Amino acid sequence: MSHINSDVSEVHWLLDMFQTVDVGLVVLTIDYKIQVWNGFMENHSGLTPRQVRDRHLFDLFSEIDEEWLRRKCDPVILLKNKAFTIWEQRPYIFKFRNYRPITGSADYMYQNSTIFPITDVRGVVTHLCMIIYDVTDVATSRLELESMNGQLRQLSKTDFLTALNNRGHWEDALTTEFKRLKRSGHRSALLMCDIDHFKRVNDTFGHAAGDAVIKEVAQAVKKNLRETDVAGRYGGEEFAVLLVDTTEDQAMFFAERLRKTVENLAIEYNQQLLRVTVSVGIAEYHSSMSEHRNWIEAADKALYTSKANGRNQVTLCQSAEQLSAG
Questions:
Q1: Taking the CA atoms of the chain, what radius of gyration do you get in angstroms?
Q2: Domain ranges of the chain
Q3: pLDDT by residue (tens digit) across 8-49?
Q4: Which of 3, 63, 243, 248 is the 20 to 30 Å CA partner of 145?
Q5: What pTM value is reported for the model?
Q6: Where in this chain does the record put each GGDEF domain (predicted)?
């Protein structure tokens, strides 16, 4: 009698553990009809064991990719091997809402799972057991870390004031394009742009006003960019734009459009309207250039010519042969 009582107690303990354990436990027939559904699954699905028993899994949970899950389970049935799924490959099997306050940023529960075979006395697989683990904490922490790392990488490339590429990242892009042009013989142009009389703005209205002007001019640069162009803040009030696969005529059109955009700006600062202009220099890549700095120097020389000739204008650099001759 005591032996029977002991067996009953053990079964009671097992059933109690089965219902309260903090993982999902699901037992399916090999044709995917639900036989067992523990408390975890009931709490998160809102469906009781009575409601799901003998129901087809894919009829109840249409979000499950049937073809994918069958591919996972077929080797479990045929080879009697375990199978595993991880949230990085597929966020969840069962689309359960996430109710944890700590991981409130996640709409749904991220899940890992283990699937293993259940055999009869003859060793034939008759059922599949799925264990569902809630890994939302781990997943959201990983995703947040990756997001922060991505933001840090972006910040390391970005000028804080203008949100354009900083000089280092922009010059890396120019170097890459320069090497490509050396190999391909394609045409690209470089534009250097400087705000005219910028020191006067700082001296008259203060550095905060100067920052406001720089930001507005940077926005004008962005507004005129194509997807393939690479713009950066080269220094102080100077900007640089790499115009990929662009001839000097096309670059002149871009530069004139930018110059006019800036000329028409009315920049509000402390209830005053500030107006500025820009001088622009353009140099098309030439095969005689031995390094990317020669390209920058050529565009800079054209920029200085615009300054010397009265500002608020665009100058195209002379050919490389003329430059070297001069």
A1: 34
A2: 2-143, 158-325
A3: 445 445 556 666 678 999 999 999 999 999 999 999 999 999
A4: 63
A5: 0.57
A6: 186-319
CA 178 → CA 100, 129, 184, 213, distances in Å?
52, 59, 10, 31
Catalytic residue among 171, 177, 237, 284: 237
Q: How far is CA 323 from CA 292, 298, 299, 304, in A?
A: 16, 8, 11, 14
Residue 315: φ, ψ to 5°? -125, 135
The amino acid occupying position 90 is: R
Question: Dihedral (C-alpha) 229, 230, 234, 237: value to the nearest 10 degrees?
Answer: 50
- Residue tagged 């890459």 (tokens): 176
Pairwise CA distance, residues 150 & 213, whole Å: 29
Q: How many CA atoms lie within 13 A of 121 on its CB side?
A: 0
In 40-124, DSSP assigns E strands to 83-85, 111-119
> Half-sphere exposure of 304 toward its Cβ, with a 13 Å CA cutoff?
7
The tens digit of pLDDT for each residue in 239-278 reads: 999 999 999 999 999 999 999 999 999 999 998 899 999 9
Angle, CA 79 vertex, CA 75 and CA 83 arms, to 5°: 45
Superfamily of 158-325 according to CATH: Reverse transcriptase/Diguanylate cyclase domain (3.30.70.270)
Whether 237 sits among the annotated catalytic residues: the reply is yes
Long-range contacts of range 36-39, CB-CB < 8 Å, 24 or more positions apart? none
DSSP-derived secondary structure for 241-261:
EEETT--HHHHHHHHHHHHHH
CATH architecture of the domain covering 2-143? 2-Layer Sandwich (3.30)
**Measured between alpha carbons, how far is 207 from 212 in angstroms, rounded to an integer?**
9
